[in-house]
Structures are given as C-alpha cells and as structure tokens.
Amino acid sequence: MITFQEAYNIVLSHFKEMATETVDIKEVQGRILAEDIYSDIDMPPFDKSAMDGYACKAEDAHGILDLVETVPAGVVPEKKILKGQCSKIMTGAVMPEGADTVIIIEESEEHDGKVKFAPRKNGFFYKCKDNICFRGEDIKNSDVVLRKGTKIKPEHIAVLATVGCVGPLVYKLPRVGIIATGSELVEPYEKADGPKIRNSNSYQLAAQIERIPAIPVYYGIAEDTEEAIGSAISKALDENDVVLISGGVSMGDFDLVPGILAKNGVELLFDKIAIKPGKPLNFGISDKAVCFGLPGNPVSTFVQFEILVKPFLHKMMGNDFKPIIISAQVGTTIKRKRTERESLIPVTVKNGKVYPIEYHGSAHINAMCSCEFILSIPRGVGEIKEKDVVNVRQI
Q: Does 238 share its domain with 371?
C-alpha cells in the first residue's frame, strides 16, 4: 500500500499528451491552449480618453476655453488643440493632438461655446496625463497575452477577441470510458427492488468528466462475471484514452477487475492507497488507454476522481491543475480512532472557520451535497484541536 502522494506522482508521470485542434472562439470556453497567443496590435491602439469630459492643455485649465469640436468614440478628431482651446470628448475617443489632459464633465461648465472648470481643493491644479489611456500601456504588438496550457475562462475569451484570435489551437478533449460493475446494480430509471441498488457512480462520473471538460462515454453496467466485465473493458480500451471502472477492485470473491485488466494487457502500477476513502484503487497503463479502477462506494469514487483523475486529465491537455486551497481555523475539535491512513473528510467553512459536516462514511453520497471543502488528516494524526489552523481543498 502506497501513500497518496506516491500514487499521485505515479499517475501524473504516465500521461500521454493529447493531439491538438483549432476551435472557434465561440466554442472555446473550458478548453486548454496548445499554443502561446500573441497580440497583433497595441492596446489601447491609440491614446484615448478614459472619461467623458474635455480634452485640453493642463496649463490652460485655470481659464475660460473655447470649445472647438466634440469627439465621439470611433471618430478621428479634426481639430488640433491650441492654447486656450478644448474639445468635448467621450470615453474611449481618440485624444486630439495638442491636448495632454481630460477634465471630467462633473468638474466642468459649458455655456455658449465656452468651457470653464471648477477649482479643486488645491486650486486650479490639473495634471498632464489625467484621465488618458495611452497607446500600448496594456498590451504591445507581439506581446504574449495568453500562455500555452491556459484553461480558457470568459476573461481569456475577451483577450482572444481583443487580439483577433478567433480560432485558437487547443488540446483535443480526452474520451473517458465509464464502466460500472456489480450484479446488484440497476439504472436510475429502474426500480431498485430487494437487494438491488441504483447505479449512481456512472452518472456522477459523467458529470465530473463533462465539468473538466472531457468526453464521457458510458458502457453501462457489467455484471460480476469475467465475461461481462472483460467484454466491457476490452471495448472501452479500444475506444477511449482513459477508462474508469467503478467497483470490483477490492479483495472479495467478485472483485474481478484487477485480473481482467491484466488479461487485457493492462499493467497495474498500484492497487491500494493509504487513504480513506479510496483505499482499493487500481491504476494501470496499456498501449491503448490508461485505466483507473475506482472503489464502488460513491463518495470514494467522487473524491478519488477529484484528487487523482481530474489532475491526470488536465495534464493530458497540457494544464497543471491547481486546486483552490484555503487556510482557516478549525471551529471544533475533530477526532478519529484509526490513524494508519490519511483521512479525507467533508467540511464546510462558516464565519471563516472549518467545521465537519454530518458524514456516515463512503456510501453517504448526499453528504457531499453540503460539502464545500475536503480536509486531509495526515497519517498518524488522531486529533485536530479547535482553533488549529488547517488547509482545506475546495471541491
């Protein structure tokens, strides 16, 4: 049995980088850049007004100025500003030649083509460069504006649009096969009579995969027979980049997955992690696809996907996934009896303090609906005291 960090290092050292494709800017949210993006312009592309006001020479602001024109955004000024003159200017409009400041509307009074400005607390003191955005102060032509490996968010799309990159090169989305094992399982739209339970893992995993985003491919429920599980695994290996199998990975008589993976040419690199939930976890590699044998309990499956599978899928697409981690005091003492494994417990943060939520174990999936963060209790630690400062990971 290896530590989680050892398992994490093994998993991330066996990724295969995805191929690339060009995607239209309207469809690129959530994708990961496979190239650096360069600007084809200066931004701003010209000196422009940052406010609605009057463009003039700062040295003239104490007098009464002649209004020579109005400059809306998108129009080139016709008049050069001479001594004793000003132009009315709109936000984003090109600064007229000769002007070195913009005095805002609220500090101005216009009447019959004449403009005067209100005194400031320090007298009639207006500075050069007030309320002006200068050419290239944000971005210069040929600057790298987005780096390879960036996961595209709405603000990145604005940058792409700004520099005219309407078809960025991104990594293709991995295809992720999903197999549920267990003769006790039925689909969610079926009635779970007697010893049957509904298959929640596959639908949970599909949603987690789509959220990355990647492409989930569901292969249904495989009964606990070598023939059924072997057929599903063989097909999934042929058709996907990654295969996720939930259930059948422990030590019971019907936990057949490790042996079937081996028969399908998958080399298992580990089969147990010193962590709770998620101790029985298989990871294997083959020439066709990478395989994760996840535990059957839904909390174990959910958590192990978030902390192990998700970073791996990001890595395949050139992105180093970095979870959000915050530090906070524990609001109440947390104890546990067994300390031989790292323990991950669902918590919430209230009024800046960490509190455990009601949690009955790895089958208690509805506990995750009120879980905001995961707290890790290291191996060998049986108690975290109230007011201790801990790091918690956002889920």
A: no
CA atoms within 13 A on the CB side of 222: 30
pTM above 0.85, yes or no: yes
92: pLDDT confidence band, cut at 50, 70 and 90?
very high
Dist CA 42 CA 63 (whole Å): 35
In whole angstroms, how far apart are CA 201 and each of 67, 223, 303? 71, 15, 11
Q: Are residues 113 and 151 in the same domain?
A: no
* Residue 164: domain span: 20-43+138-171
Other CB atoms within a 10 A radius of the CB of residue 65 amount to 25
The dihedral formed by the CA atoms of 219, 221, 226 and 228, expressed in degrees to the nearest 10: -60
Examine the pLDDT at 124 and tell me if it is beyond 60.
no
In this structure, the answer to whether residues 199 and 330 fall within a common structural domain is: no
For residues 250 and 299, is the Cβ–Cβ distance under 8 A?
no
As for how many domains the chain has, the answer is 4
pLDDT tens digits, one per residue of 258-281: 899 999 999 999 999 999 988 889
pLDDT band at 250 (very low <50, low <70, confident <90, very high): low
Q: What CATH number does the domain containing 166 carry?
A: 3.90.105.10
